[in-house]
Design brief:
- α2 crosses α7.
- The chain is built from 7 helices and 20 strands.
- The N and C termini lie far apart (49 Å).
- Helices cover 16% and strands 34% of the residues.
- It is of the alpha+beta class and 364 residues long.
- It folds into 3 domains: 144 residues, Gyrase A, domain 2 (2-Layer Sandwich), CATH 3.30.1360; 87 residues, Alpha-Beta Plaits (2-Layer Sandwich), CATH 3.30.70; 114 residues, Elongation Factor Tu (Ef-tu), domain 3, CATH 2.40.30.
- The protein is globular and about 65 Å long.
- A hairpin with a 2-residue loop joins β16 and β17.
Length: 364
């Protein structure tokens, strides 16, 4: 059965093209992917990402429990801090990539991918100590809204009861919203676009009012609603991985370029299968096409007439005006600057292995 977010009718009223995604009816686009993509890069955009899973962890031992099931240094987090992390299986494979928010000494909020929500919840609850903390799936009682773009702070500051200084990167605050009295909201300086931005966790019943308040506050900044299409091109330009495509349960973090998020000084599920000095047989690389074409997931990658890997994510970059992508290739072919061939619709398109992010914002 298809699920709908608390903002579904808002999207319909805005004329969104709705599509099924990970079991949810979600907006693919409103005015068009390229137009929405540009709005986030130069101005500000508003996303409904309520399909993502949300868990609340609380009680004695919560920090120690979370530190033992994730590879990141949870014990080193400060209250109000946000940390990108993962859930790993005993073989070191990535069950999911997640975000952890520390609300207190033994109180955490966790965001997981939509398609993995049930799997993650079962895996995490199965590892809870008998007399330890409690894990609650609060996805059904909350909504998640992302405000992203260089003008996002000037929009957000209009509807929160403070504004002397911006929220620092990878931190969050819990506050009330001025236009929607009595509504508590968690506002995190996080995002999936590479631009300055914020993600807001709000009660599901207040989601339409919060969305409309943000749209009204952003009118003078040219705010636009943004769909899944632009969300994908924005994250790809930054080289951000997408679960189920660029990583799966058989992918090691070291092969995916995620070793920097691992604290090898502690014990955690999957550590025995990993090594900080490991040289995987295949590694994730970024590439840019030197010819016309749009690389897609599954396209074969060649070098010296030999198949060396496959594309895991690919699209046309609206900012760079060319095809870009990521894929796993045999490690000896992974040198930046090396030329490769990508098979697109039966034709070989020349490409070059490119450092990520593909898009680097110019400093003013």
């Amino acid at each position: 059965m298809i699920q709908r977010t608390p903002l579904c009718e808002v999207h319909r009223a805005l004329g969104a093209k709705m599509v099924p995604f990970s079991g949810w009816e979600m907006p693919l686009s409103y005015s068009g992917v390229t137009d929405e993509h540009r709005a986030v890069r130069v101005g500000v955009g508003l996303f409904d990402i309520s399909h993502m899973g949300r868990f609340a962890l609380s009680g004695k031992g919560a920090e120690a429990y979370l530190d033992g099931i994730t590879p990141g240094p949870v014990r080193k987090m400060s209250r109000g801090g946000a940390q990108y992390s993962m859930l790993l299986n005993p073989q070191g494979g990535i069950l999911d990539d997640i975000y952890v928010y520390k609300q207190g000494s033994d109180r955490f909020f966790i965001i997981v991918n939509a398609a993995n929500r049930a799997k993650d919840f079962a895996w995490m609850t199965g590892r809870l100590p008998a007399s330890g903390p409690t894990l609650v799936d609060v996805s059904g009682t909350t909504a998640l809204i992302a405000l992203q773009g260089p003008k996002s702070w000037e929009v957000l500051v209009q509807i929160i009861p403070f504004g002397k200084s911006e929220i620092a990167l990878r931190t969050f605050v819990e506050t009330e919203m001025v236009p929607v009295r009595g509504v508590k909201v968690l506002i995190a300086r996080t995002g999936y676009t590479g631009e300055k931005g914020y993600e807001l966790v709000v009660p599901s019943e207040a989601a339409p009012a919060v969305w409309n308040a943000l749209m009204a506050a952003g009118a003078s900044a040219g705010i636009q609603p943004i769909g899944l299409g632009a969300r994908d091109t924005l994250r790809l330009e930054m080289g951000y991985l997408l679960y189920g495509h660029d990583m799966t349960e058989t992918t090691l973090p070291t092969a995916a370029g995620l070793a920097r998020f691992i604290d090898f000084e502690k014990d955690f599920v999957g550590k025995a299968a990993l090594s900080r000095d490991a040289r995987p047989s295949q590694t994730l690389v970024g590439f840019s096409l030197l010819a016309n074409g749009i690389p897609r997931e599954g396209c074969v990658i060649y070098s010296d007439q030999k198949e060396i890997g496959r594309v895991t994510s690919g699209n046309f970059s609206p900012t760079l005006k060319k095809g870009i992508g990521m894929g796993y290739v045999d490690a000896r072919y992974a040198e930046e600057g090396a030329e490769i061939l990508v098979s697109i619709r039966g034709k070989a398109a020349a490409a070059v292995i490119t450092p990520r992010p593909f898009y680097v914002k110019k400093k003013k």
